[in-house]
Design a protein that fits this description.
Layout lengths: L7 H13 L16 E8 L3 H21 L3 E10 L2 H10 L7 E3 L3 H7 L4 E4 L6 H10 L3 E4 L7 H16 L4 E3 L7 H12 L6 E10 L13 H6 L5 H4 L2 H4 L2 H11 L5 E7 L11 E7 L5 E8 L6 E8 L2 E3 L19 E2 L2 E2 L2 H15 L6 H20 L3 E2 H6 L5 H4 L7 H6 L3 E2 L22 E2 L3
Parallel strand pairs: 1-2, 1-4, 2-3, 4-5, 5-6, 7-10
Antiparallel strand pairs: 7-11, 8-9, 8-15, 9-10, 11-12, 13-14, 16-17
């Protein structure tokens, strides 16, 4: 049976509607009382996902106040986006003055300086490593959307920042929403801790849907053009394997409890009219100990669609979200997991979990989880782009093993955007497997991006 996943548009409509229900930027549940806690929130990335995350964050506080009387008082104090008008428009909905709504490549620095306790990050993935580093260095609790990077150095930067966050006792929650749902947590406990189905022996993961994003050539000329259409560019999104299929790879990796040791596979482009991404990928992921996972993803109209994951075990199979009952659930008894008799969706539950752990003073740091999942998809992308089998050791561990893989950096980088040194890639300049170790062939006539 196919796992149904709501579209981004559906999620955004629901989230924004939920946020609008609160009206003001300060919210308290109807029964809010008890210890009470005032928290200031800042949002980096004011597109659809960012606005949705902020609405869900505020709704999560209301749920915790209504159900646990925590007395959480959240105030949105700043917004940031590459495009200042987006930051201002989002800020107005939450009572943020215009002078606390920041735009441009350094907007994240100004937002962090504005003094939020919690930073929500929903900017393009290429920007997340330096933004996360800055937030952790300033002692901020973080929600960081997936994926957390687009290349090996970015993944390692986030892992290092995650260790720094742990040393500071900061709460870090990732946007890998499926693993936050109670049904998934209970199934994970039953399968991996209690071995209810025996050893995991194989698996598959899939994210096959219709075409997404630009329907016509973008013809970018400036850095603005790239940021506005970031989903279509390898350098900003990591390709849809990294940006989207990371959800399913995260679930498989969570249940196996380790990253894949190598990846091989292929992909290609058949119909996409814009940007420089592939249309499809098919990967063989080796998780060691004789366990192989087939990963496939596609964004092409008129084809068979299916989204989900399945693990084959010695005594049966699991889709990881089955709700298999463990002997003892690891979910705290007082953690709200349902709303009006229905399970809280993962996109909302992740914010409930963040604020619950913060209010209760309980540790929670998901940096390694999301960094592993992101790095595996990056490893698979490099394998497909080059036609080579790529190992975890050469990409994440040993800088001398394959420097061309370990140091592989997609450009323009976040630093290039901050320096105003953006080279705009040629549209349709697609990777050609078969011996190349670069992310894609050298660009012809690359142009300096203007803001």
């Amino acid at each position: 049976m196919k796992q149904q996943v709501p579209s981004r548009r559906d999620l955004m409509k629901g989230a924004v509607a939920a946020g609008a229900a609160f009206g003001a930027f300060t919210i308290l549940g109807a029964t809010a009382k008890g210890q009470g806690k005032s928290l200031k929130v800042g949002l980096i990335g004011c597109g659809g996902r960012g606005r949705g995350a902020l609405a869900q964050h505020l709704q999560a506080a209301k749920i915790l106040n209504d159900k646990l009387s925590l007395g959480l008082d959240l105030k949105v104090v700043a917004t940031a986006d590459w495009f200042k008008d987006r930051a201002v428009a989002t800020g107005k909905k939450h009572g943020v003055p215009d002078d606390a709504c920041f735009g441009g490549a350094d907007a994240y620095k100004k937002l962090i300086a504005a003094g939020p306790d919690i930073v929500l990050m929903a900017q393009a993935p290429c920007f997340r490593p330096p933004h996360f580093e800055a937030a952790v260095a300033a002692g901020k609790h973080c929600f960081i959307e997936k994926p957390i990077a687009v290349d090996p150095p970015g993944c390692r930067r986030v892992l290092a920042a995650g260790k720094a966050a742990e040393a500071k006792n900061l709460v870090v929650v990732a946007g890998t929403n499926m693993r936050h749902e109670k049904a998934a947590i209970d199934t994970h406990q039953a399968v991996t801790v209690e071995a209810a189905l025996g050893k995991i022996v194989a698996g598959r993961a899939f994210f096959c849907i219709g075409h997404m994003f630009a329907k016509q050539p973008i013809k970018p000329q400036t850095a603005d053009d790239l940021v506005r259409t970031w989903q279509s560019w390898i350098e900003l999104s990591g390709d849809h394997l990294v940006e989207q299929h990371v959800h399913n790879i995260d679930m498989v990796t969570w249940f196996l409890g380790r990253p894949a040791v190598s990846a091989g596979g292929f992909g290609g482009r058949a119909r996409r009219p814009a940007g420089n991404m592939f249309d499809f990928f098919s990967l063989d992921l080796d998780y060691g100990d004789g366990v192989f996972v087939h990963s496939m993803c596609r964004q092409v109209n008129g084809c068979w669609n299916s989204v989900g994951q399945e693990l084959t075990c010695e005594k049966g199979t699991t889709k990881c979200t089955d709700g298999l009952k463990p002997q003892k659930s690891p979910v705290p008894d007082d953690l709200p997991c349902d709303l009006d008799g229905k399970p809280i969706p993962g996109h909302l539950q992740e914010h409930v979990n963040l604020l619950y752990h913060l209010a209760k003073g309980k540790p929670l740091n998901q940096t390694q989880d999301v960094a592993w999942a992101t790095a595996i998809t990056v490893m698979g992308r490099i394998a497909a782009y080059t036609g080579k089998r790529v190992t975890w050791a050469e990409m994440m561990v040993d800088p001398k093993k394959s420097p061309e893989i370990y140091d592989l950096t997609l450009k323009p980088t976040a630093d290039d955007f901050e320096k105003g040194a953006v080279e705009v890639p040629d549209e349709g300049d697609i990777p050609a497997p078969g011996g190349a170790t670069a992310p894609r062939p050298p660009r012809k006539g690359a142009r300096k991006g203007r803001k």
